[in-house]
Amino acid sequence: MHLGLFLLAAGHHAGGWRMPGAESGTENFDLIARMSRLAESACFDMVFFGDRLVTTADSPPSMITRPDPLVVLAALATQTQRIGLVATGSTTYSEPYALARALASVDLLSGGRAGWNIVTTVQDGSINFTRTTHPAHDERYAIAHEFVEVVKGLWRSWDAQPYVRDAERGIYMDTSKLHTLNHKGRYFEVAGPLNVTRSPQGEPVLVQAGSSGPGQALGARFAEVIFTAQWNLREAQAFYAAIKQQVVAAGRDAGAVKVMPGLMPIIGRTREEARAKLAQLQSFTDESKAHYVLGAELDADVSAYPLDGPVPELPVDGAFSRRKLLLELAHAQKLTLRELYHQVANSRGHQIVVGTADDVADHMQRWVEAEAADGFNIMPAYFPGGFDDVVHEVVPRLQARGLFRQRYAGSTLRDHLGLPIAL
Ligand SMILES: Cc1cc2nc3c(=O)[nH]c(=O)nc-3n(C[C@H](O)[C@H](O)[C@H](O)COP(=O)(O)O)c2cc1C
């Protein structure tokens, strides 16, 4: 199986930063580097960074500050040797040339370890960018298709090994290996070529997050890793089957795309201890943030709804997939708005496994064997303790069962994922 560490420096549980012994903070690069190296010591495929382009005083601690994830990757490239480095980048609020260039640069300086998590961005970022509107869901995906085409085209500007460096003849590069894109499309006009050459893995790995119908179509066309939120095995199996089917229909090999749901493990020496840990985390959840956080996760203004009342009915067609997921969760578990908020504060709709290290390893094995996942993006509730438990207790069990590597076989992210070099 494949494993990523989803690094959110205040912890993925909304109250995680308040756990005794927890360290937190996006300004704490020492923590970020230490956790990345810990993931590398456990042979994780990648460390993964989400992103947001807006913040407010109401944002929860895990979201309120966000250094640019690509800049963090560049710093981490010098602090790690083998682990893949994945940053989220928005197709709605970036320029393809600038993003293609920055990603290719990180891929080069990390020796072929970079990946791009393609998102279309839910929150209206137009307040911070010189554009007047936040495009609707379908249009964001139409833009994304063209955006990714342009980025891939730019990454193919240079064939491999273009440097000649023949001092005698005065030939620095073989410019016959340079190709100009000349893209003129509906949303973008980019001539190229890119002024960055290929990395040892050819080009960065394409990761994609966005699980609606249009999100799945984008992923099936381009992605090599799909990050998704799933809380129930049956739904996860259906999502996995739908993705693999669309990948094959797009003329690609089903194994060329790895489906990796998020997973929050809460681990104790006994199940009682694990349940007590979750209760302790929940006691730290700040309920004053409930309406704001639910509004962001449901992509709707719910401020008029009382917390102890029912979860409002909201349309799901053409909406952000997290809304559908959370409404299904609320319906299945008959939750009030306050209870739904606590689920969101726990893991934002991702699966949460509370138990012993054996329980967590069993769960992961079951999901992979049941074709619900090819691996997981691990979301520790708090750092470092919540991740120490995974590295020291769960990973050795997975390795003993032959489910996870004991050493890296290669040096690039494509090597770890079993993907061919992109040339
Ligand atoms: C598991 C998951 C993680 C995501 N992470 C981010 C993120 O870090 N930043 C962001 O702007 N959008 C993120 N998104 C949402 C994407 O922006 C997505 O392109 C957009 O919300 C439309 O999503 P949908 O296809 O799921 O409806 C994420 C979506 C999913 C499903």
From TrEMBL:
Pfam families xref list: Bac_luciferase
Binding residues for FMN, per the UniProt record? 51, 88, 137, 141, 211-212
Q: Which N-terminal residues, if any, form the signal peptide?
A: none
Q: Which InterPro entries match?
A: Diverse_substr_monoxygenases (IPR051260), Luciferase-like_dom (IPR011251), Luciferase-like_sf (IPR036661), NTA_MOA (IPR016215)
Q: Where is the Luciferase-like domain?
A: 19-370
Keyword set includes Oxidoreductase: yes
The record's PANTHER family line, in alphabetical order, gives: ALKANESULFONATE MONOOXYGENASE-RELATED, C2H2 FINGER DOMAIN TRANSCRIPTION FACTOR (EUROFUNG)-RELATED
Give the protein family.
Answer: Belongs to the NtaA/SnaA/DszA monooxygenase family.
Please give the name of this protein: Nitrilotriacetate monooxygenase
The species this protein belongs to is Comamonas serinivorans
